[in-house]
User: What shape does this take?
Amino acid sequence: MKEISFRNDVLPLKDKLFRLALRITLNREDAEDIVQETLIRVWRECQDGKDIDNVEAFSLTVCRNLSLDLNSKLEQRNVAFDEDIHDQPDTTRSPFETMVDHERFQMLNALMNSLPEKQRTAMQLRDVEGRSYREIAEVMQISESDVKVNIFRARKAMREKLQR
Amino acid sequence: MDYKYIEQLLDRYWECHTSEEEEQILRSFFAQKDVPAHLAQYASLFTFVKEAQEEHVSADFDKRFADILAEDALRHDTVRTHARTIPFRRRIAPFLQAAAAVAVLITIGGAAERAIGGSQQEEGTTAPVVANTYIRSERVAEVVSPVDSKNEATAIVQPDSMARAQMGVDVQMKEN
Assistant: This one.
């Protein structure tokens, strides 16, 4: 069994976990809390001697489950996106281009966030994180064909929106 | 420029038939500026994905997380200190060990004493045993018949002494 280092194997996953948690909870603070909880839980499992083949997939699974738990506790919040991170000025582009990019990002992000949880999680893991269908199936605890169905529907919804 | 390959890839992308490498090709293609008009409508999807990949935790996340870890470690240590209870069996283990040691010593001592006592008996206690046997049998006889036990005992012992005396006479006669 490979020895797992918190600093080298677990902590670097924080951004990936954050993106997944944010995609599910749609709230930055909740997502960060979930990332912290996930990192602690995964590390404890490692210390308890649990045999974890794929730390990343296991962490994503824990992160998703915690996010879903939180969503079931709280009311579903349809906040489109926390804007502060995209308010930083980009000096390489004109203000008009920046505004158009910002609006486009907001629109697509809102569209993706409006998809059912399974579809947006599957699309997030495939298109944003570049995971294989097998890994996504493992994280979401569904079959690979179900993963493909969810991604197909999510892409179709995005495509229809873009064609309008 | 022929964009047939990209169009095919795009068709397969919508159908979820593209590999990770092929999807990367699409992302690279749509990241460039000169995208043909009939494909431009999809460019925003791939650039959106690229931007979404840059999403990250806030700048003070590491510091807050380090504080949480320190608190968590402290809480765990405290809990461990309070929760550590010594089981009853482990608490009395030293006494049980001492008792076992004493028992072993007693057993060995007893066995040694018996062995030493036995050898002593073999060396010089045959006659008293015989005498005791006679006395016991005499007591039994006393119960059975009202005969003078002292005389009886003497009578029983007498043949022995008489025999010895007889042997002495024989020896004297042989010497003569």
